[in-house]
Amino acid sequence: MHVAIAGNIGSGKTTLTRKLSKEFGWKPHYEDVESNPYLHSFYEDMRRWSFNLQIYFLNSRFRQIIEIRRNGINVIQDRTIYEDSYIFAPNLHAMSLMSTRDFENYLSLFELMSSFIQPPDLLIYLRASVPTLVQQIQNRGREYEESIRLDYLKHLNERYENWINGYNLGKLLVINSDKMDFRKPEDIGIVIEKINAEINGLF
């Protein structure tokens, strides 16, 4: 089984991935943040490094998906390959932080990769307002995230909602992160109940 968690920066994906991995015994696949050679540079100069960053993430997540299907084990994935192509790259292009030439090149590569992959069996979307995102970004204290602009988060949220409203690749579970603290056992318990209900419908 392949379960994936989608959501904006600071929505709680990594914390929930870690908790659910332990609860269900699923192997976690985390977003490549700490070893990403472009992330710090991107937040310092988005226009210069946007294409490099998106290609790095695209390659990283494509490799993850190939590994997931090859190994045939139960996996939970922190962020999906679809978020790169439907949310982050188009947003950068719309904000004039990625050139049309680079964006079209990126989309062409994604379209080729997507023809070789299968979507997750269950997608969990963490819906969070911008104030919640800002609070959680501040709480984790990553230095390179201090320069994230509010309008950047707002535009990403809008694109997330548009994508989720039209999502039809498989089962979808929407969780309101504004009302959840994934560090609390009672809140994790609620999420686990919802996931069990969805999983039972897969078989």
Walk me through the structure.
The model has no long low-confidence stretch (mean pLDDT 91). This protein is globular. The chain has 203 residues and is an alpha/beta fold. The longest helix has 26 residues, at 46-71. The termini are close together. The protein has 8 helices and 5 strands; from the N terminus they run βαβααβααβααβα. It has a 5-stranded parallel beta sheet with strand order 2-3-1-4-5, with helices on both faces. It has a single domain, classed as P-loop containing nucleotide triphosphate hydrolases (Rossmann fold).
Task: Provide a brief overview of the structure.
The chain has helices at residues 13-24, 39-44, 46-71, 81-94, 100-114, 130-140, 150-165, 185-200, and strands at 2-7, 27-29, 75-78, 122-127, 171-176.
- Report the mean per-residue pLDDT as an integer: 91
Structural class: alpha/beta
What is the fold named in CATH at topology level?
Rossmann fold
Number of helices: 8
Distance between the termini: 11 Å
Record the SSE blueprint.
Layout: E1 2-7, H1 13-24, E2 27-29, H2 39-44, H3 46-71, E3 75-78, H4 81-94, H5 100-114, E4 122-127, H6 130-140, H7 150-165, E5 171-176, H8 185-200
Parallel strand pairs: 1-3, 1-4, 2-3, 4-5
Helix pairs in contact: 3-4, 3-5, 4-5, 4-7
Task: Summarize this structure as a short list of keywords or feature phrases.
203 residues; alpha/beta; Rossmann fold; 5-stranded parallel β-sheet; 57% helix; 12% strand
